[in-house]
From TrEMBL:
Keyword Repressor applies: no
Pfam families: AAA_lid_14, HTH_8, Sigma54_activat
Listed InterPro entries: AAA+_ATPase (IPR003593), AAA_lid_NorR (IPR058031), Homeodomain-like_sf (IPR009057), HTH_Fis (IPR002197), P-loop_NTPase (IPR027417), Sigma_54_int (IPR002078), Sigma_54_int_dom_CS (IPR025944)
SUPFAM superfamilies named in the record: Homeodomain-like, P-loop containing nucleoside triphosphate hydrolases
Protein name according to UniProt: Sigma-54 dependent transcriptional regulator
Keywords in alphabetical order: ATP-binding, Nucleotide-binding, Transcription, Transcription regulation
Claim: ATP-binding is one of the keywords in the record: yes
Length: 421
């Protein structure tokens, strides 16, 4: 179902006949009201009835404060409910009798605003492989199956996880991410499971762990391969029991979130090396998604670069363009830091370049490290191959033109290409 004109319906004590007529009119303007579980929308239409206890209304809407609420109520309830407005929980009010066109416009505006507020990532996939990956992600988004995403740092693992969340029935609830790398075990434990006030010296306040924070939504455990072995056991227990207990508490809280684990290390390798529990691996790795390094999807480099420049233009009102040389260098670079590095390179070049055209030099790309350990002859051959490849690409694939540019005969160029194949 298209998410474009979806909104969630909420009501404490059912809908009146008048409200149902209103919904029919909205439907005729293209609005859909899917069930909560299928609804990808972040905007909700809350119906408040004259007999509703306003305190309860407030509590319930505040509990779903990530939703953007538009309230339909009676005129005399407006002043009391306006507190919700000042708390930032309600986006707008419409009082009965409602003007349908105006309400429809408010809902549309709400959808736009919410999307911007959360900066939901738009899928920008420009290669066949990546489109396939995102298609797969969309297919599994509707389920609660555990997913493991593997790929190098900066390649877009979290982006993909957010995409799954955004396309799931859980999108109105929080997306919470915890990076398990580089934190001492006791801190990770605290972040995962939380603690009660007074659970240890210095625990001045109760703290909800990420399982609780992600209630109803999605929990991304990034760099799960770095989770200490002793905590892997606790984590598995949470998954099996579907409940979590804060440190210092006797109470188990039900866990209601989809788990996505990401790692730049291959979990199956860690299992065989004894660094990751096999039972946890099988529990998590129901669906495996592989995000390739940017260097393995070179056809995406230039479209992504253009996409980042467009984003820059939208944000700063200045559209910068890439010179031919800059395009060529971007295409040739080895991108050890993947999409994150590409994004940083473009933002910095767009900011620092004096003119509207970004030159090759302004990209400030360091040269790829050649293997100094390899013999000189191999390095020369590698350099020659790269130069030829570059010349052929720069000449739109025409080998005759490339040979002319390189100052060698057509036969020599063909021979060298054959040798490198
Ligand atoms: N398909 C995409 N289109 C646009 N931007 C993307 C895409 N994939 C990733 N990005 C951007 O690239 C940057 C790095 O992505 P992300 O944080 O998802 O990588 P990661 O693999 O999770 O990195 P790390 O392992 O270091 O946490 C982010 O700013 C993200 O918005």
């Amino acid at each position: 179902m298209s998410q474009q004109k979806q909104c969630r319906i909420w009501s404490l004590s059912g809908l009146s006949v008048e409200d149902r007529v209103l919904l029919d009119s909205l439907a005729s303007l293209g609005w859909a009201f899917p069930a909560e579980a299928e609804c990808g929308s972040m905007v909700g239409l809350a119906f408040v009835q004259p007999k509703d206890e306003l305190r309860k209304v407030m509590e319930q809407l505040a509990a779903h404060s990530r939703m953007l609420w538009i309230v339909v109520c009676d005129n005399n309830q407006l002043s009391e409910l306006s507190r919700l407005f000042s708390l930032g929980i309600v986006f707008d009010f419409h009082h009965r009798p409602v003007q349908i066109e105006l309400l429809s416009a408010t809902l549309g505006h709400g959808l736009g605003v919410h999307k911007e507020l959360l900066q939901l990532p738009e899928p920008s996939t420009f290669s066949h492989d990546m489109t396939g990956l995102y298609d797969k992600a969309r297919r599994i988004a509707g389920t609660d199956i555990s997913v493991v995403i593997h790929g190098p740092s900066g390649s877009g693992k979290e982006y993909l996880a957010r995409y799954i969340h955004q396309h799931s029935g859980r999108s109105a609830a929080p997306f919470v991410s915890l990076n398990c790398a580089g934190l001492p075990a006791n801190l990770i434990q605290d972040e995962l499971f939380g603690h009660e006030k007074g659970a240890f010296t210095g625990a001045n306040q109760a703290h909800a762990g990420v399982f609780e924070q992600a209630k109803g939504g999605t929990l991304l455990l990034d760099e799960i391969g770095d989770l200490p072995l002793e905590l892997q056991g606790n984590f598995l227990q949470v998954l099996q029991q579907k409940s979590v207990r804060r440190l210092g508490s006797a109470r188990y809280v039900p866990v209601d979130c989809r788990i996505i684990a990401a790692s730049h290390k291959k979990l199956s390798d860690l299992v065989s090396q004894g660094g990751f529990r096999e039972d946890l691996f099988y529990r998590l790795n129901v669906i495996h998604l592989e995000v390739p390094a940017l260097a393995q999807r070179r056809d995406e480099v230039l479209p992504l670069a253009e996409y980042f420049l467009e984003q820059y233009a939208e944000r700063y009102g200045v559209r910068k363009h890439l010179s031919t040389e800059a395009r060529f260098l971007l295409q040739e670079y080895h991108w050890p830091g993947n999409i994150r590095q590409l994004q940083n390179v473009l933002i910095s070049a767009a900011t620092l370049s004096d003119t509207s055209i970004i030159s090759g030099q302004e990209l400030n790309l360091e040269h790829p490290q050649t293997e100094l350990a390899s013999p000189l002859a191999d390095q020369v051959r590698l350099f020659e191959q790269q130069t030829i490849l570059r010349a052929v690409r720069m000449n739109g694939g025409c080998r005759n033109k490339a040979a002319r540019q390189l100052g060698i005969s057509r036969h020599t160029l063909y021979r060298k290409i054959r040798q490198s194949d």
